């Protein structure tokens, strides 16, 4: 079944000039990039996007990291896009990825369990939620996402 998933290149990926190499990997892997936008997230947007992690010890660090520079948001489309994009990015902890999944995107451009360079929706439910978070809001709501 054709699926859509949300992919994000995080501030360390955009700032570290990894956008072109990541996009090449995406296209070479058979995904279509159907929507994309680069933007600077504000604290409220990150807190709302990552609401499920709000009680975690790393939450405030995550907010700081995710507001430290601009991100590139993309909607990726292909058969089995959700699981295939998760497989392509590799484990959350980039240090682990370098050992167990050396060809994964997080192994290539991530730094540790927080600064892991890219994000991918983890289920069909989160894909719908995350795509609409960035792309299907009324224009008046965009002020919550753009600094
Ligand atoms: P992501 O897959 O986008 O989803 C939640 C993010 O929280 C994750 O990538 C990391 O950036 C961050 N994160 C997850 N686990 C940890 C951790 N143990 N320590 C610090 N940051 C983490």
From TrEMBL:
Role this protein plays: Major role in the synthesis of nucleoside triphosphates other than ATP. The ATP gamma phosphate is transferred to the NDP beta phosphate via a ping-pong mechanism, using a phosphorylated active-site intermediate.
Give every Nucleoside diphosphate kinase-like domain span: 2-142
Protein's recorded name: Nucleoside diphosphate kinase-like domain-containing protein
Q: Which residues bind ATP?
A: 10, 58, 86, 92, 106, 116
- Superkingdom classification of source: Eukaryota
The beginning of the lineage is:
Eukaryota, Viridiplantae, Streptophyta, Embryophyta, Tracheophyta
| UniProt record similarity statement | Belongs to the LAZY family. Belongs to the NDK family.
**Active-site residues annotated for this sequence:** 119
